[in-house]
Design brief:
- Helices cover 44% and strands 17% of the residues.
- By secondary structure, the protein is α/β, with parallel strands linked by helices.
- The strands form two sheets. The protein has a seven-stranded parallel β-sheet with strand order 3-2-1-4-5-6-7, with helices on both faces.
- The longest helix has 24 residues.
- It is globular.
- Keywords: Transferase.
- It comes from Sphingomonas aracearum.
């Protein structure tokens, strides 16, 4: 029976942020069918510590520190004509580790999680190649370029152009190219003409994300909660816009920005009406306390885990259309794009608590029936030649 090499740009343990959550569940799914060898980077020293669950489900595991800074990656990229995103993840130790596993094990499939890791797949491999792009990164950088100025705009345009070429080349090699939503997959097909492209959507663990499972944090007055990695530019821009343009339009309530590594721009928002928590052990008590969960993202790619988590916690959610794209919410999200409409949607929910509660219940029901991880990842079985019990098809 062939084995699987899983290459990840970030070790998917513990599953405490969006990209790690998807990787975690895919890895578990694959490991139920075949022995899986995991090679991944860590950009947090804590992720280098032994993880019992990771060791238990993998046939072998190696996590390498990623220490290359953005300045060095940019210099290497400019010198070699590569995207900065690829130069940042170019590592001799990882290349050697991949070669070692391929030489020693009967690898049938190489599952690549995030396009930065495709550079480690040998050109002459006979293994099946599954490329999980998640999102179309070149489109993200093209959007960044629209808002950038001066040299940064030039860099963003360069990154978008080079990544678009890289993505097309990878897809041409891959036996399957995966995206987190059909909208993202359709954009990629239209942009590249690639074949063998399909959506494998994100899911949600509705047992863990259950409002009955945790006690809410204590807060006097309405609490508006945003969760996410807070050194990530779209999240930074989202909370700045909400705090400066939306929150002043609301007579009462505070914004809680819940997430690790808040950037200086985020920390500067802290004050009487804005709480910046930094990293928390568990986001669920904050979600449980929310009068409204907000997702004011102007730039969002794929399916937003933060929105699915809020829905699973039975909270009413107000989101921009960008943040809701790709989510089959069946009318259980309130959508607004400009500041006045966003504030009005929140105010309407605050004015009718019974309706807000019912909206949250309906959102949880949608997630329970539509977004269970097992159902979302079933499409991998056909791609990888598994039957329902894990034998070769």
């Amino acid at each position: 029976m062939g084995e699987i090499l899983f290459l990840a740009h970030r070790v998917p343990f513990p599953p405490d942020r969006g990209d790690k959550i998807r990787g975690y569940h895919i890895l578990h799914h694959l490991a139920r069918h075949r022995p899986v060898h995991l090679l991944a980077f860590a950009d947090d020293p804590r992720d280098l510590e032994p993880h019992e669950e990771a060791a238990a489900i993998t046939a072998s595991l190696r996590v390498l520190p990623r220490r290359k800074g953005q300045a060095r990656a940019a210099a290497e990229a400019l010198a070699t004509g590569r995207p900065v995103s690829l130069a940042a993840f170019d590592d001799a130790a990882m290349r050697a580790a991949v070669a070692q596993v391929l030489a020693a094990r009967p690898i049938e499939t190489i599952h690549v999680y995030s396009s930065q890791m495709a550079q480690y797949v040998p050109a002459d491999t006979s293994a099946r190649l599954v490329m999980d792009f998640c999102d179309m990164d070149s489109a993200k950088f093209a959007a960044y370029a629209e808002d950038a100025r001066g040299p940064m705009r030039w860099m963003m345009r360069r990154e978008a152009r080079l990544l678009a070429s890289t993505e097309a080349d990878i897809a041409a090699r891959a036996d399957a190219s995966l995206f987190v939503s059909e909208a993202e997959a359709a954009l990629f097909r239209a942009s590249t003409g690639a074949k063998r492209v399909q959506a494998v959507e994100n899911g949600i663990d509705t047992v863990r994300f259950d409002p009955a499972a945790v006690a809410p944090v204590e807060e006097n007055g309405p609490l508006f909660v945003f969760t996410g990695q807070m050194d990530y530019r779209p999240n930074i821009d989202a909370v700045r816009w909400f705090a400066t343009d939306v929150l002043p339009r609301l007579a009462a309530g505070r914004l809680a920005v819940v997430g690790r590594a808040p950037a200086a721009e985020v920390r500067a928002l802290a004050g009487p009406r804005v709480i910046v928590t930094g990293e928390v052990a568990d986001v669920r008590p904050w979600l449980a306390a929310a009068a409204v969960v907000v997702a004011p993202l102007k730039l969002a790619r794929g399916v937003q885990n933060k929105v699915l988590e809020a829905m699973a916690m039975a909270r009413p959610v107000v989101a921009t259309p960008a943040a809701a794209e790709g989510i089959e919410h069946r009318g259980t999200l309130r959508l607004a794009d400009d500041a006045a409409a966003f504030a009005q949607a929140i105010a309407g929910l605050l004015a009718d608590p019974a309706a807000a509660t019912q909206l949250g219940r309906e959102a949880r029901a949608v997630v329970q029936t539509r977004y269970g991880w097992e159902a979302r990842l079933a499409a991998l079985d056909a791609i990888l030649g598994f039957d329902r019990v894990g034998a070769a098809a």
